[in-house]
Amino acid sequence: MALNNTVTLVGNITGEARIHDKNNKLFAAFSIATKDSYKDKDNDEWKDKKTEFHSCLVFKPETVQLMKSFKKGARLEVQGTLSYREFEIKVKGQVKPIKKKEATIIAHKIEPKPIAKKAEPASP
Predict the structure, then answer these.
(1) SS3 letters for 11-43?
(2) Sign of the CA dihedral running 37, 40, 45, 47
(3) In the CATH scheme, what is the code of domain 7-34+50-112?
(4) Is the Cα dihedral 66, 67, 71, 72 positive or negative?
(5) Which residue of 21, 52, 76, 99 is surrounded by the most CB atoms within 10 Å?
């Protein structure tokens, strides 16, 4: 069996995970924020791109418990699959609703991912 639908995301948790109980099964919902940057070719400065927010769900009981230990701002690596939910938005003045898709990461593995510091150059 091929695993084509896989995603690995590194970012910061936007708040403590919300733990839900549905039909006596716990799951955790949380959001990860990511921001990329690029080097401006004109002035050689680093510029930040827009912050993106990613919805995540966790269903494995041991991972749900682990999520309770992470506080807002914790840097995490999330591995899982993408799941899509379709919905419609009714816009005033339009006859047909707009159809949209929302992606959620179904996380299978989560671990802390500290920022790697640059190695100091060796002194002579």
Answers:
(1) EEECCCCEEEEECCEEEEEEEEEECCEEECCCC
(2) negative
(3) 2.40.50.140
(4) positive
(5) 76
User: Could you tell me which residues are beta bridge partners of residue 59?
Assistant: none
pLDDT by residue (tens digit) across 81-95?
A: 999 999 888 888 888
Matching residue, tokens 């680093």: 46
CA pair distance 86, 103, nearest whole angstrom: 9
CA dihedral for 19, 87, 76, 108, sign (positive or negative): positive
Query: Tell me, what DSSP letter sits at residue 92?
Result: T
- pLDDT for 59-117, tens place per residue? 999 999 999 999 999 999 999 999 999 988 888 888 888 899 999 999 999 999 987 66
CA dist 109 and 32 (Å) reads 14
- pLDDT tens digit string along 40-53? 888 888 888 999 99
